[in-house]
Amino acid sequence: MILFGGIFLIASVGGLAALLRSGQALSKRLVISAFLNSGLMGLVIALILWENFNGQKPHLIIGVSVLAGLGGMTTFDLVLQWIRKRFGLDKPKE
Question: How many whole angstroms separate alpha carbon 34 and alpha carbon 28?
Fold first, then answer.
């Protein structure tokens, strides 16, 4: 359980780092969104890998999960932009 909590936190920090690199204006909502999106993305990947490898390769599981957290925010933003463009939706106000 501690392993997965740590993965969530490290992946979340990776998402926050990606947000800072993006150069977007920071808001409380955007920071919380980046933290949760990346943390949950890393956690889901960790759980899937844990099941597939039966917990035998913890370093691989941690590494891939952290990378998923780094890319999680970017991937989520890309999907949201595509959906907004596809359906003609306006960007939400911050």
Answer: 10
